[in-house]
Amino acid sequence: MERQDDETQLERKNGESSTNERYPVSFAIFMLARAHRGLAAQMLREIGLFAGQEIMLMQLWDQDGQSQQSLGRLIGLDHSTVAKSVKRMEEAGLVTRTRSPQDKRVTLVSLTDSGRELEAKVNDIWNRLERITAERLTEKERRLLVSLSYKIAAAIDEANSNSVSEE
């Protein structure tokens, strides 16, 4: 047993960490998310967007004039993250923020002409991203990946909800 511990320590010193062996699912998700987000960010930079902004724009293209709160809820982001991203998009001239006439506490987010003009470019980027991401998968593997991803996300969301309610 002592010899095995020594070998493990040596592997770690040589940079051959077995993180991917000890936590294969979490490490695979980490690597996939890092690679996907990196490629998306690179592609989006070509049109002046930061990764994540395109998701908010997609939501607004589906239904313009949403509240910041509903945007966050739809894509699973907290209020401060949404507010910062919306502010950045407003400064870039892609959206405007106004107070709701019905409830002045609510901030509505609406597309500008510049924001609407990005729709075709963003859709092109996401089509390319989808093709690159899934090009080595069979149709059955694609469906399984999507199904398992939603299943894992639901388990993580539930664990997050439980940990928040326990605090």
Structure report:
The chain is mostly helical and 167 residues long. The protein has one domain: Arc Repressor Mutant, subunit A, CATH 1.10.10. Helices cover 71% and strands 7% of the residues. It is built from 9 helices and 3 strands. The chain has helices spanning 2-13, 19-22, 24-45, 53-62, 68-75, 79-91, 113-117, 119-134, 139-166; strands spanning 66-67, 95-99, 107-111. It has a 3-stranded antiparallel beta sheet. Helix 3 (24-45) packs antiparallel against helix 8.
Integer count of domains:
1
Oligomer: single chain
| Proportion of beta-strand residues | 5-15%
Average predicted local confidence, pLDDT = 89
- How can the largest sheet be summarized? 3 strands, antiparallel
Q: N-to-C terminal Cα separation, in Å?
A: 39 Å
Q: Structural class, please? A: mainly alpha
Pfam family, one: MarR
Protein name: MarR family transcriptional regulator
Keywords: DNA-binding, Transcription, Transcription regulation
InterPro entries: HTH_MarR-typ, Tscrpt_reg_MarR-type_CS, WH-like_DNA-bd_sf, WH_DNA-bd_sf
